# Entry
Amino acid sequence: MEKLLQRIIKTYKVTMPLFVLILTTFPILASAPKNIAIESQEFTLTQAKKTSVKKVTLNGSRKTLSIGTSYKLRAKITPANATKKAVKWKSSNKNIATVNRHGKVTAKRVGKATITATARDGSKKKALFVITVKAKENYKSAYAPIIKAFAATQRSGFRTYSRPIEDSYIAIAIRDGWINDGSYAAGYMSSVVEENNLRYVIKDISGDGIPELLVGSRNKTGPQKGDIYILSVYTCLNNKPISVFQATPTYSATLLKNNVLYTVGAHTGAIWEIFYKFTADGITLKKDEFVEETPFPTSKTTYSHCGDRGYSGAKKISKKKYTKLTKKYRSKELKLKGTAVGSWK
# Structure
């Protein structure tokens, strides 16, 4: 009886107080017509209108994970007032990747699997998500030569550098003689040249379960004292380090809480903002560049979106659009303390 009452409450709209319906009509409800007259009281039971699911969307379309790692999928139902919003999760190959009823995907074996989220209201609306699983990486062994090379370069007073960091920020300064030539770049490099100032952090910022190696210089003064500016970022593929980001001699990066690398700099009346975010493959960084310019002597400010095309491919945009496009990247800076490269064992 209790279950039947619950079904009535959920399925029907009642034109008179529900307790009256229960007390006066329930005993004959099973055989009564929709219009029920009892003791001169008429009750009308009408079938509640159902709103079907029109679309199911997920937080992305593909992701690369390493064996043993997990990723949380989230399903969004359209319209928001759909009667039944639940979805059913299914993996095309449970040997490669499994998914539980909450949308948590776990990587099992190397390969690809498609995760399907299907609306449970009978509308057959669904969304697909491709999971690529790669082998576990021995990232500590892969990153060891890089960290040791930075340490050796630091011990030498930055007079020499090892091949693993030839394309790094430090190597550029050494190659072009900017450390001791008295230039602006030389002054900027002073924080790096400081003994024991190089730090490393091993942290998964790509979201694929394989931690990246971040190497940077410690900030000596100011509100960010002790934090590091990122000079180089490496990831691991097939147990080998891959360079994915190198700062320039005048533009180091900070890591934001949403795992976006952020660089900002000013030159001749212009402010450059560049955001870097890992793509789904966990190896490639996508660059998105913006410029705010106030040319001298005019005070009129213009805004440009360069994307990954560089300044030559800049497109003028409004301030409103500039704010909107950059807002999706902005987040608080993540405080990274790091470990001295010389302490690696």
The longest strand covers residues 228-237. Residues 13-41 have pLDDT under 50 and may be disordered. The two ends are 70 Å apart (CA to CA).
